[in-house]
Amino acid sequence: MAAIIETRGLTKRYGQRTALTDLDLVVEEGAVFGFVGPNGAGKTTTMRILATLLRPTAGEAWVGGHSVQRERRQVRRMIGYMPDFFGVYGDMTVWEYLDFFAACYEIPAATRRALTDDLLELVELSHRRDDFVDGLSRGMKQRLCLARALAHDPRLLILDEPASGLDPRARVEMRELLRELHAMGKTILVSSHILAEIQEICTHVGIIEAGRLVAAGTMEEMQERIRPHRIVHIGLLRGVEEVQAWLAARPGVLGVTLNEKDDHTLEVDFADGEEALAGLLAALIGAGFPVVRFHEETGNLEEVFMRLTRGVVT
């Protein structure tokens, strides 16, 4: 799949401090790319460069093949940018706010009414269309700003901490909205410090620390970096010792241990792929063993993050 974002040697210095160092990053079209790292790692700097709001000190970046330095207008037409901190015009109504930004994108007045109604429906704010922006909750303001970023139907959304400061319900609503936008064909670059949410919605992830990219890849690739083998949990009604001995003799099984908290569950270190794993389950059932649970333990993004980073800040 073609890349919609590409950076080469991207570097940004603020006086004596280097916020970004030789960043080489590729985001494929259609991905939901989670950009994670500690505060001060360089996430916001990278996003502002991609949004044409900052010029890099060195290196280059392209969005949809357009240079963020030489073709800024073309880049801005392709992206919808939602910063980590934004201002809203509190004395406007919700509908006026969206209409104003749609006009800024040169969308004809004849089509703006239908467009803003569609956007409000998408972010579930139709019932607040005539309310003043100041009267919205923080979660509603976040969804309104996301609607603003969608006004010109961009191919790429760049979202800097969109769930920051939201309560649990508002975070769930934002997560579901991002899933819907992905289903609509949008590519999304999203930064967050809430690793569990990144793991739930993202297809790819990049980890940045002290201005340098530590690792990037699909969620599966990132998990395999710290856990090259599969860990499979097998729950049984009875015959645990018999099944343990049977499993130990199977091809691809590197080890079998009894779960410390449940003496009816075995943990199997398994080296082979999906087909072999399905074959193992079929063989267990075929041998007549009373299997009640069979599931693979998935790597946790927090575990990946802690393993690959060192706690360094710029």
Summarize this entry quickly.
This protein has 314 residues and is α/β, with parallel strands linked by helices.
How would you characterize the overall build of this protein?
With 314 residues, the chain is α/β, with parallel strands linked by helices. It has two domains: 3-224, 3-Layer(aba) Sandwich (Rossmann fold), CATH 3.40.50; 228-298, Alpha-Beta Plaits, CATH 3.30.70. Helices cover 36% and strands 29% of the residues. It has eleven helices and 14 strands. It has helices at residues 43-50, 72-78, 94-104, 109-122, 138-149, 168-183, 195-201, 219-226, 240-248, 274-286, 301-308, and strands at residues 3-14, 17-28, 32-36, 58-63, 66-67, 79-82, 156-160, 187-191, 204-209, 212-218, 230-236, 253-258, 265-270, 291-297. The strands form three sheets. Strands 6-7-8-3-9-10 form a six-stranded mixed sheet, sandwiched between helices. A four-stranded antiparallel sheet has the order 2-1-4-5, with helices on one face. The chain has a four-stranded antiparallel sheet with strand order 12-13-11-14, covered by helices on one side. The longest helix is centred in the middle third of the chain and has 16 residues, at 168-183. The model has no long low-confidence stretch (mean pLDDT 89).
